[in-house]
Amino acid sequence: MRARRDVYQAIADPTRRAIIGMLAGQPQNVNAIAEQFDMTRQAISLHVKILTDCGLIFIRKEGRDHICEARLDSLSEVSMWVEQYKKHWESKLDSLESYLEQLKKERYGK
């Protein structure tokens, strides 16, 4: 049984995150993407396949070229997941800020 790939798997790898960043700026063919990395075109093609399987990249054919375009809607799932933890950490940081202000008043009377 083949494991289902998801957006979290896609963004787990720094090379794939870099590819997403490149394609968010403008569509590119696989060769242009591969030129930006110190790895084989075959390795880049595997990363592109994973990104395609996860729905973060769409590939269209233009003649002999395969043009990769970013489809970043799937990242909203990640954004919502991170948001819940952002609220948690903001609360913790607010508590820390209050504690530091209290210490400052106690020590320096300010």
Automatic annotation (TrEMBL):
Q: Sorted alphabetically, which Pfam families does this protein's record hold? A: HTH_20
What the entry lists under InterPro entries is as follows: ArsR-like_HTH, HTH_ArsR_DNA-bd_dom, WH-like_DNA-bd_sf, WH_DNA-bd_sf
Segments forming domain HTH arsR-type? 1-90
Q: Name one GO molecular function term.
A: DNA binding
Plastid keyword on record: no
Q: Which domain of life is it from?
A: Bacteria
Keyword set, alphabetical order: DNA-binding
Query: PANTHER family of this UniProt entry?
Result: SLL0088 PROTEIN, TRANSCRIPTIONAL REGULATORY PROTEIN
What protein name is recorded for this chain? DNA-binding transcriptional ArsR family regulator
Organism lineage reads as:
Bacteria, Pseudomonadati, Bacteroidota, Cytophagia, Cytophagales
